[in-house]
Amino acid sequence: MRTYKNIIKQNGCVLGLLFTLLIAPSCKKSFLDVDPQGQQSAVDFWKTEEDATKGVNAIYAGLRTWENTAFPAIEIESTGSDEAEKGSTPTDAIYFNLYDTFTVTSAEGALNAFWAGQYRNINLCNQVLDNVPSISMNETLKARYLAEAKFIRAYSYFRLVRAYGDVPLRLNIPADASEYNIPRTDKATVYEQIEKDLTEAAEVLPQSYGSADIGRATKGAALGMHAKVAMYLKKWDLVLSLTSQVMGMGYSLFPDFEKEFRIENENSQESLFEVQAELLVGNNEASNSQYSQVQGAASVTEGGWGFNVPTPELLAAFEPGDPRKDATILFRGETTPQGDFIPEIVPNPMYNQKSYVPFRFYVSGYAQGAGQNFRVMRFADVLLMNAEAANELGDPAQALLSLNKVRERARGGNAAILPDVTTTDKTALRQAIYKERQVELAMENDRYFDVIRQGRGAEVFGPKGWKANKNEVWPIPQPEIDLSGNLLTQNPGY
């Protein structure tokens, strides 16, 4: 479990400059490349345009760490759902089951790791937002860097507020020790700040970048993320407006659903935002993403840890003939489209195929699949949000148009499967959209909180132990409560 721990302190403030990052325009993901030997003293930092660049790049590099994409994120954002369960062997990492059965207590480590990971992201963003404005540099680039920091701060706060409800809202680096310990902020205020950050980011961010900067936050990413936040708040007029803007920006569905998730098709025309990952031979510190490794089919020859596996409920959710079933679920004993055989001896009958990396990309001594990006938001999600908003606002024609675009791509020209949805009944169409979200976005860490925001937690997760007025959120980590001297309070029921 590799995480970045070299935190640099200056005047009592945790700067969190975890590594120095260098720009190399010839590399697709060059703004993420790490030089662990090139660490710079904090007292000499935040002086130049190059410092600003390094500070912003550190934000992006932090997004692919263990807390953000591996065990803690999976436990908090996936395991509680009906589409995923622990996987691996029965005795391996049994604490996963606490999330699956809703018996987790505030002392469980993933709660604190996920919390810490998001606040580390926010800390890096706040450093940029506090320090870059005073740097003498290209003003257009400065504005863009500030917008990028606001986007990622909003993304991390969105993950926090969904997971824990009320959370401390910190928008600046503490000036002195008295500002370190702050109470929880009500979630409505946190959501207001998330929307503010995304609005301001969208006003500045470009629609696209040159090859050296692919993967940075764009205007479309900010608009799409704002639409998702607004959907959780049931601001349907805003969801419809924001998704309509994104739909007019040139995004489109990647023609082949299965190939959309392969390394060679990262940052495609369907991608609004992805956490960038790269396997850099000779630089193990930079090749640190374990998103694919922890979910890979577990065996001696193929590697992978075999966690976060699909459930029988997810398998049954796909309509007969839906190609997305085989593109989402990696079955024991199958040969993948890329020619890899999954041995019959692996412990689990199914694995997450969206995180699968062909074995030819494995490099000895590095995490298997370290180059696999994590798709945060795809255009398919935008279309389904547009469909849901249109239906809620009484426009079934628009809802069907967006919904059926997703189904059309899924069936791949085979008219015999996945026929268009035709109902205009509001309740029936709502259920069809929910169903489409389930199968289209399966195993992408969306299902759990999606069902809760739909108000169906007890209906869908009740058989697993989910209880209303408690399990809408996870417990506040006990170590954080202890560190605060009990200034932080616990969520009801825990």
Report on the structure:
Residues 1-29 have low confidence and may be disordered. This protein is globular. A hairpin with a 2-residue loop joins β1 (9-10) and β2 (13-14). It has 17 helices and ten strands. By secondary structure, it is mainly alpha-helical. The strands form five sheets. Strands 1-2 form a two-stranded antiparallel sheet. Among the domains are: 1-205 and 455-494, Serine Threonine Protein Phosphatase 5, Tetratricopeptide repeat; 293-372, no CATH class. Helices cover 40% and strands 6% of the residues.
Q: Give the CATH topology of the domain at 1-205 and 455-494.
A: Serine Threonine Protein Phosphatase 5, Tetratricopeptide repeat
How many H/I helices? 17
User: Which structural class do you get from the secondary structure elements?
Assistant: mainly alpha
Radius of gyration: 22 Å
Please state roughly what percent of the residues sit in beta strands, choosing from under 5%, 5-15%, 15-25%, 25-35%, 35-45% or over 45%: 5-15%
Strand order of the largest sheet: 1-2
The rough form would be described as globular
Helical percent range? 40-55%
Oligomer: single chain
> Could you describe the largest sheet, including whether it forms a barrel?
2 strands, antiparallel
Under CATH at level 1, the class of the domain at 1-205 and 455-494 stands as: Mainly Alpha
Low-confidence stretches: 1-29
From N to C, what is the helix and strand string? EEEEHHHEHHHHHHEEHHEEEHHHHHH
Number of strands: 10
The CATH architecture of the domain at 1-205 and 455-494: Alpha Horseshoe
